[in-house]
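SAMPLE LOG
Freezer: B-3
Tube label: C17
Construct: single chain, 256 aa
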Amino acid sequence: MAENFAPICEAIATYISQQLQMPIEWVDDISWQAREEKLDRGEIQVGWICGLPYVWKADQAAPCIELLAAPVIKGDRYQGKPVYFSDIVVRQDSPFRTFADLRGCTWAYNEPRSYSGYYVTRSHLATLGEFDGFFGKAIESGAHQTSLQWILDGKIAASAIDSTVLELELQRFPNIAAQIRILNDLGASPIPPWVVSTQVPQELRDRLRQVFLQMHQTPEGQAVLSQGTIDRFVAVGDRDYDAIRRMAELAETARL
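STRUCTURE (predicted):
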């Protein structure tokens, strides 16, 4: 997840440690790429990952991870479901009013393995019949928050930003709201899940899952969840991520 979720992830790790009465280390001193590699090797046992890398890993002959739970975000747009959106963001003073207006503009995506910032846009372009390059220039920013800052600075015209990341950033920096405008959104899409390494004993995996699913039922858990505007965690299955599989396949037919 984006860096602005790091404090919430650390708080969740602390809560789980208390509930299971066992030491849990929150790892944030290496890049997310290195953390994902450690998750693949079982050196990190629990993680919160994008839905696209999840399906890539789950579809391997011998999956290294399995689903734990998925968050339900507070807010009417989420309708009490484990979903999120990719918000198409421009500057408030931008002349763009529709997605079609963005043809030929300078666009940023966070990174090429991201569903919310990259694949969902390519999938959307494919549904519009735009297969051969819609934007004038597409730049990799490295992070949703960087894409947002580039919009504010006028370096790019627009970007697709994970709605949960954007809402948390607006909560932290309310002054940004007057400087941007959301043209529209792409979604709803299955939200990034929490996963656990299959190297963890089954009994402990089951206990972990129960802690996540019951977190909203304790005052301490509610306090942790509220930091990330999370209402609760719910159980999800692999089939819940089929929509990402379908859209990722469609995305491969189009380029930005």
